[in-house]
């Protein structure tokens, strides 16, 4: 093999190795034992799922204590009906289709608990459409009562309003940055106006490599 | 005698080759005429003839059949066949996502001939616009998947930026500075519109409206929409919202252009290298051809929308497709030129190697023949101008709040002042406005008149002119 042939073969091989052929897209079903993929540019399942588990778990833990206290005082302790108004994203990232997932995760956890039953989201939306109230308007007592009356007409009375909020904080260090994600759950007692707040935090480090 | 037979034989051979070339050129010219014809028929509103002619081209299974299928989807959409249009768009979107990956065999073939040897994967702007058109198309028959398509528009744009960032090793700030191409605001606009009617996720609505305001700074209604997202609401009780989308003008086209600086640079490089090489390098006589995107044009300024005798307002340009395509294509241009220059270099190297192995420096005839073959080889290159040709020049939109009920709306194109025709005919349709919800209308105006169907998201089979009633007079101002 002369030098020219050698160079030709090497360069051809290199170009085929570099570009290769088109791959076909495949997928694998992950089991409960498999870890979630970690988002390289933004938060994903690996961030939101633990945050939801922790925040909802804390909220329920606190309610258990209050219910135990109430039952000791001889007060009724049935399932509380929650109107979950929605998830507000105030983080610096777009969460795109994950927002619905976050809502459904929280809603499912609440529904499966022995403490709460949640109102279907379709009724929540119908109530807001009927009153033309924005979710943040519901912090005002008059608006709460207006919304409650509409929901009662729809046969969907409730005891608590629940709001979820996502926030983030970013710390930059040249090519790296750390982002802290916080999920806050705020539950407002529609009868007393008292509110309970629980949150969960997760930190993530992003770095960029040229290789 | 022998010499005479040889010259006759050569003459026949040359004549045969000339004939083949003539037939090929005639075939190419015929196909180009066919392609031009289906476009003209579409623009004139003859959708049946346009589709028939286009189908003939698609059936030939050409290398641009996916691009032609996108044109077919536009014809189907304009004709009111939204399900078929969506299916075609979705099919091409998935194929282009696959073909976007590089293939070594095609790359090698493209180096021997030209970029037309690479399977058509569309340009970045086309891949983004497929998702935008999918969102609009889906809105016209229920909008179940429109949110997903709208999110995909932004996602695809982010992918494009990330790819350029990685390939050129740029930071985010450098990408913003170097690649200041326009981003398509249609995706976030549709996303915000869909979220608004759910009366729930005002934070996301604000985020999307903010994107529209930042990406399309000239969009007239951007600040009004943003203010509504921050402090307002979808509509007053008893009212619904009408969105009128207009596909206006003739869209961008990809044409062949001579890359003058690279051609000149290669010619100079040939001459310099010839001073040091044993064999003469093929001179760059044939220019380097590359595709460039030229903007389309619109003959109308906007569209006036009325209900009864009351004018609701005029549409505003949400996305200038031509400018978007030109700027996106400009970002891709360095890669296209680089590929063309590498191809030329490899061709010159191949001819040089052939000369070297034949010892052409000692044979004037062989040297001349190989140089001529090299020039001819380079001259056969054609720029890859396969593209989606039936895109509009602009996408305009009007949002108006109306009392719930059946309404007859009238659409009147407003012709630009410098045009020969001063008035364009109006078209009317009946729409149903639902309390607290959105209704969508789509019209196509490539020149000065509405072509095809006026599409609405309302179920047309239930709507009649008689059922419109007197409530049209209670129309609210925007």
List the helices and strands and how they pair.
The complex is a heterodimer of chains A (211) and B (478).
Chain A: H1 3-19, H2 45-72, E1 80-90, H3 98-112, E2 116-118, H4 121-131, H5 141-153, E3 160-173, E4 176-189, E5 195-207
Parallel strand pairs in A: 1-2, 1-3
Antiparallel strand pairs in A: 3-4, 4-5
Chain B: H1 2-43, H2 47-59, H3 65-78, H4 82-99, H5 104-112, H6 124-139, H7 146-167, H8 172-178, H9 186-196, H10 202-215, H11 222-231, E1 239-248, E2 253-258, H12 260-274, E3 289-294, E4 300-307, E5 310-314, E6 316-320, H13 321-358, H14 364-379, E7 394-403, E8 405-415, E9 427-433, E10 438-445, E11 451-456
Parallel strand pairs in B: 1-10
Antiparallel strand pairs in B: 1-7, 2-3, 4-5, 4-8, 6-7, 8-9, 10-11
Protein name (chain A): Penicillin-binding protein activator LpoB
Organism (chain A): Thalassoglobus neptunius
InterPro entries (chain A): LpoB
Would you state the CATH class of chain A?
A: Alpha Beta
- Unreliable runs of chain B: 1-27, 470-478
Per CATH, which architecture of chain B? Alpha Horseshoe
Distance between the termini of chain A: 34 Å
- Largest sheet composition of chain B: 5 strands, mixed
Instruction: Tell me the CATH superfamily of chain B.
Output: Tetratricopeptide repeat domain
* Helical content of chain B (DSSP H or I, runs of 4+): 40-55%
**How much of the residues of chain B is beta strand, in percent?**
15-25%
The radius of gyration of chain A is 25 Å
Overall geometry of chain A comes to elongated
Compressed to H and E, one letter per element, the order of chain A equals HHEHEHHEEE
| Strand order in space, largest sheet of chain B | 6-7-1-10-11
The figure for the number of domains of chain B is 1
Query: What is the 3D form of chain B?
Result: elongated
How much β-strand is present in the residues of chain A?
25-35%
Strand pairing plus helix content of chain B: what structural class? alpha+beta
Helix run count of chain A: 5
Biggest interface, and residues per chain?
A-B, 34 and 32 residues
